[in-house]
């Protein structure tokens, strides 16, 4: 990876997420191509596009689950994969990466809860183990988060005793427990039965309406995207094809590829 020049920005305008020149490929399969993307603090950006277009990889790069082959990522003005030394950017230490990544939370398509732990234990684990919080305080916060997602009566249930929608709401609460400034949501309703989707989307609406958390969401729920997003980004072949307010992109897309994609998605 080449060593890019450091970037600076006014604290009032520094993006919550800034990606510059991001490339990612597996062999001949190029997933991201010279991607530039900024997300403002508190902004809600919904990423849409066909399967294999690179949408999920954007989130995984921001969460350090995939390292880019080239380019830079900044979270709240701090480089994620680089550190500045003697005026130049060098590959970052794991300690630095963990420190910057602590501002980011991610909710996955398939819950990833610990099956032997109760809902409240799943939520309290990271604040205690990663952030060193007092166990009783972490448990109290976990109970408050369960109440927020409508599952306070299920605090002592293990994942095996919960429905898919309930498990996904626990997963959202768990990600919020570390107080991340940036939340990433990867197709969080796609593995759910249709009747369970509404409860999960309602929790995401509540987070969005709070306005404190920067949100990047990959979803095929176009009605939800229209309602919640500040900006809709259409992705195809590793690049941003078009972007804009949801009403504009969904109702009057500029690109034929976007029109074809939306026609296919909305037909289901």
Question: What's this, in brief?
Answer:
This protein is of the alpha/beta class. It has a domain at 115-179. The protein has nine helices and twelve strands.
Terminal Cα separation, in Å?
42 Å
Strand content: 25-35%
Shape, principal axes of CA atoms: globular
Gyration radius, in Å: 19 Å
Order of helices and strands: EEEHEEEEHEHHHEHEHEEHH
Unreliable stretches (pLDDT < 50, length at least 5) are: 1-11
The biggest beta sheet is recorded as: 6 strands, mixed
Strand order of the largest sheet: 8-9-10-3-11-12
Average per-residue pLDDT, rounded, comes to 90
How many DSSP helices? 9
E-strand count: 12
SS-derived structural category: alpha/beta
Give the proportion of residues in helices: 25-40%
Word description of this protein:
The protein has 268 residues and is α/β, with parallel strands linked by helices. The chain has a domain at 115-179. 35% of the residues lie in helices and 25% in strands. A 6-stranded mixed sheet has the order 8-9-10-3-11-12, with helices on both faces.
Highlighted features:
single chain; 6-stranded mixed sheet
Write the layout of secondary structure elements.
Elements: E1 17-26, E2 29-39, E3 44-48, H1 55-62, E4 70-75, E5 78-79, E6 82-85, E7 88-91, H2 94-101, E8 104-107, H3 119-129, H4 135-148, H5 164-176, E9 182-186, H6 194-210, E10 214-218, H7 222-228, E11 231-236, E12 239-244, H8 246-251, H9 256-266
Parallel strand pairs: 3-10, 3-11, 8-9, 9-10
Antiparallel strand pairs: 1-2, 1-4, 4-5, 6-7, 11-12
């Amino acid at each position: 990876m080449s060593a890019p020049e450091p970037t600076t920005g006014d604290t009032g305008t520094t993006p919550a997420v800034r990606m510059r020149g991001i490339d990612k490929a597996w062999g001949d399969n190029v997933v991201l191509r010279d991607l530039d993307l900024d997300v403002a603090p508190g902004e809600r950006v919904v990423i849409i596009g066909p399967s294999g277009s690179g949408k999920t990889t954007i989130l995984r790069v921001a969460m350090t689950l995939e390292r880019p082959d080239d380019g830079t990522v900044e979270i709240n003005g701090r480089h994620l994969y680089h550190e500045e030394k003697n005026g130049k950017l060098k590959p970052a230490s794991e300690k630095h990466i963990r420190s910057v990544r602590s501002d980011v939370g991610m909710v996955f398509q398939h819950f990833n809860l610990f099956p032997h732990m109760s809902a409240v234990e799943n939520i309290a684990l990271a604040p205690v183990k990663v952030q060193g919080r007092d166990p009783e305080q972490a448990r109290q916060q976990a109970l408050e988060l369960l109440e927020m997602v409508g599952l306070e009566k299920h605090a002592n249930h293990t994942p095996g005793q919960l429905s898919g929608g309930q498990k996904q709401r626990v997963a959202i609460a768990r990600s919020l427990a570390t107080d991340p400034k940036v939340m990433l949501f990867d197709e969080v309703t796609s593995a759910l039965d249709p009747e369970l989707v509404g409860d999960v989307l309602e929790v995401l609406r509540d987070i969005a309406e709070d306005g404190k958390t920067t949100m990047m969401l990959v979803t095929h729920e176009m009605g939800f995207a229209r309602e919640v997003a500040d900006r809709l980004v259409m992705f195809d072949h590793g690049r941003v094809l078009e972007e804009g307010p949801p009403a504009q992109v969904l109702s009057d897309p500029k690109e034929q590829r976007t029109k074809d994609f939306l026609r296919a998605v909305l037909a289901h």
